[in-house]
């Protein structure tokens, strides 16, 4: 996106990729600490007279056990920001949501704090959610609007109102405007075109197994659409 947009934005603006790094505890519940089972605790005979020798019996030697200690996980997330070259003011922030952003936990909490900071500033926010699963970001949305994917454009001068692009699997990802300063026209970001470009550039068709079910909880119409499209592209 930055490669495509920078020739359009220059010389007044520049889009750059930034990194957000934080640590969180590993929430993998399959890692269980191994303790000492109750049945290995030494219990002497209830009747010492039955022992053939009065020599005290030493308890079994304690051997070390293997345990798993949850390790802090370093999480790296990338986002885009558009700056005014002359003033270095951050004009627009572009976030593409990750699975950790949409899953309850530290990753989501960190992101929501960053999101709140942007929404309380004079910076525009573009939030792109291309993940079918997980909790959607907080927004006042009509219950009748059902979609798999969402793009929110929150312009600083129109808050709390924002523009919502709601779309589903079989629909093309919309091209969206990139809000800048009021005196500057907002150029379009062709998201579908950029996604296709990345797909071809890194040969994702060779990395993805199209024989497998690509997504869960698909409707019959969505599965039919995927099958038809895959056959047209000679992927299955």
Features:
six-stranded mixed beta sheet; alpha+beta; 21% helix; single chain
Task: Explain the overall architecture.
By secondary structure, the chain is an alpha+beta fold. Helix content is 21%, strand content 23%. The chain has helices spanning 2-9, 99-102, 106-119, 191-201, 220-232; strands spanning 13-25, 72-84, 90-96, 124-129, 149-154, 163-167, 176-177, 188-189. The strands form two sheets. A six-stranded mixed β-sheet has the order 1-2-3-4-5-6. The chain is extended, with a radius of gyration of 28 Å. The model is unreliable at 28-46 (pLDDT under 50).
Describe, in short, the structure shown.
This protein has 236 residues and is of the alpha+beta class. 21% of the residues lie in helices and 23% in strands. The strands form 2 sheets. The protein has a 6-stranded mixed sheet. A two-stranded antiparallel sheet has the order 7-8.
Radius of gyration using CA atoms only: 28 Å
Distance between the termini: 30 Å
Shape: extended
Strand order of the largest sheet: 1-2-3-4-5-6
Main beta-sheet strand count, sense and barrel state? 6 strands, mixed
Structural topology:
Elements: H1 2-9, E1 13-25, E2 72-84, E3 90-96, H2 99-102, H3 106-119, E4 124-129, E5 149-154, E6 163-167, E7 176-177, E8 188-189, H4 191-201, H5 220-232
Parallel strand pairs: 3-4
Antiparallel strand pairs: 1-2, 2-3, 4-5, 5-6, 7-8
